[in-house]
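Bug #77: duplicate submission created two jobs. Keeping one. Sequence:
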Amino acid sequence: MPSKGIVRQVFVSALWMSTALATITVALPAKAQEPAAPALNSENKAFNIPPQSLQNALTLFGQQAGIQVSVDAAALRGLSSAGVSGSLTPNAAIGRLLSGTGLNYHFSSPKTLLITKTGTQGENTSSDGSIVLQTITVQAQGGATTEGTNSYTARSMATALKLPMSIRETPQSVSVVTRQMIDDKDYLTLDQALADTPGITTKIGASSVRHEYWSRGLEIDNIQYDGVSNNVHYFARDSDGQDDMDMYDRVEVIKGAAGLTTGAGNPSGAINLIRKRPLEKEKTTITTRASSWGNGRAVIDYSRPLNEEKTVRARIVGAFGAGDSYKDYYSNRDGLFYGTIDADLTEDTTFNIGYSYQDQKIDGFDWGGLPARPDGSFYNFSPSTFLGHEWDYLNRRQNTLFLDLEHRFDNGWKLNIDGRAAWSRADMRGGYTWWIGDNLWFYPGRFPYENDVYSFDVNTSGPVELFGREHDFVFGVNASRTKLSVGVSNYDALIMDPTNWDPSADPEPDAIALTSGSEEKTDQLGAYASARFSLTDDLKLIAGGRISWWKWDQEMTTYKTGATTYSDYSANANFVPYVGLVYDVASDLTVYASYTGIFKPQNYYGRDGHLLDPIKGTNLEAGVKADFLDGQLSATAAVFRTKRDNVGQKIIGISYCNPLASSCYEGVDGVETKGIELEMRGAITDRWNMMAGYTYAVSKYTEGSLDGQRFNTTQAPEHVFKLYTSYSFPDEHWTIAGGVRAQSKIYSKTQTVDLKQGAFVVADVMAKYDLTEKTVIQFNVNNIFDKRYYTSIDPTVGLNNWMGAPREFRLNLKHTF
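Kept job's structure:
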């Protein structure tokens, strides 16, 4: 669909679905009076809730029982629970959890539990005398939903092992970007959200939309959507959508090796985007944004139950943005439509299906970034400098269909079936620069893309009684297929002077036929299993493994001659082990250690024009995790070490190993990364949220002729520090926030090149004012001191050097009804 039709597509789709929902609403019978609460399901369920704060215990109860819990947040402060374990009805389990707390409960429906404190002074009352509570809600959809929690931390996540565990129980370093953090920082896209995430470095590759995410000195190459893996191909980043944050509840990040459930990948981590789910009450939020860069955006987020029993619920999100940027000649128009429906097919079975559409049109598209001089010194460019043509462009769109089925068995086991299909299309025209001798050449071209990704994950998990103790198991299988097609049309190259370049000087060329093209397919299949063995009340052993099959093939064609080359590679039954130990020193203090294998096929070509063999190695991590203030504030300290063999290393001076590879590589052994990570996240008080993290990571060669030398110095800084904190004043109107991102130098030093970006600090601030309970105005200033720096540099010096964004003022207005 042409990009100029995106406004119509987004808002007509939103109008159509809103009309449909309204029609259903009118068709529903009017409620004459509150119905009596339905009888509670009397069947037993398996509960395993250890002693802890009552709020955390209720979170686990909602997760294990599949029940939504609503309770006044103030009523839980300072309360703890003795926990509950065994096969019980939800009614019996909640009775034990609340024993001695002075709280009462009742089920308003089989899936909704209300907890109240009777006889409390100062409670708000309505005109009819009933108690009105400001509640916090624990959703039945997993206990980890962050929307509406007003928190910078999450209670649980299952990204690492497919087992629902609290962050403290997970034997790896993890971070969660919550919905509150997304709103406070006004993140629009995934790259913005990860820029502030501890332990993550964001960079730009050979295109302004090829965002790279690095952790522990390595690139993260696996992005999941609701736990379904999506291996990110380097070229496909031009065609895939920009991961608009308006449709996500949170972003879960696990750092270190994550191959047990994701399959092949770097031992850097995995990113899991969790979509927003429909709410059990009607809610509409409208947000408008304006930026000092000359662009704006409008978003509507609407959710409601579709029947009186609230067993069918729907949610839609529509967004449209347009305008200019800080970059000269750049203009952008983008749109989003997201729709999803939850249906409780039975009391124990929930089905979710959804669809999203993203469309983006960029004029003045910057593909190659900025060059440096041959000796590595930088030109006196500004962040607005554009060294392309004004007729360069990128038009891309992505359609995504997803589904999820969860069935809860009576014995505490669950079956999850998740699937995702995404179809991406792009048409791009742009150019890049390259030094040949003393001349800087500019190579323009046109590149059409097609990228189709199909993936699914099926797993079952639950408790098993062994040797008088209860243990948790998960068994699963997942698979994916990626089909990528890239075409190339090369225009005439020219010599350019970057200090005297006019993007509007050259006329737009006529369309030319494709000169070459590539079609490649990647298949991955894996079976995994893991278990959490309860050796004692305080000591847990986590063990598992994955068997993977990986296959890749590529066909490249030169259309002028008709010459075709075919390459393929496969790896069969590769086993990756995982072992972890978690020991609870106290109810709020845990130490852990973990070990996992590494398996990573490479998209790097050797001198012979074929792909290098996969990287293999090991990943070790140990650390301590602590909860403070009844679990409202969490902290992690970790040390880690990875060692990899056959790592692709670029061969300087040799290029074009095949028609689509601009560089050649060779495999080297003994690449080792060591470091530490520190993170603290959560609420210091009811009004004060914070997030802080520090990472030290250094990668070196430990074998061969490069023994002792640094690895990836241009991509991975040794030191990264991030801090963000917000405070809400007692008048309940004003909230202020601020934060910094700091990193040490990145560099490339050879006999002829000394390329370096020194250490830098970037600061952001925010102020928010609640005009009413439902209307909020927010003002953000990004890069408040207008720091000028390069966020990415490239050792080839002739291209792919990208400057960070300058200062931006952003204002948004949000109304909820």
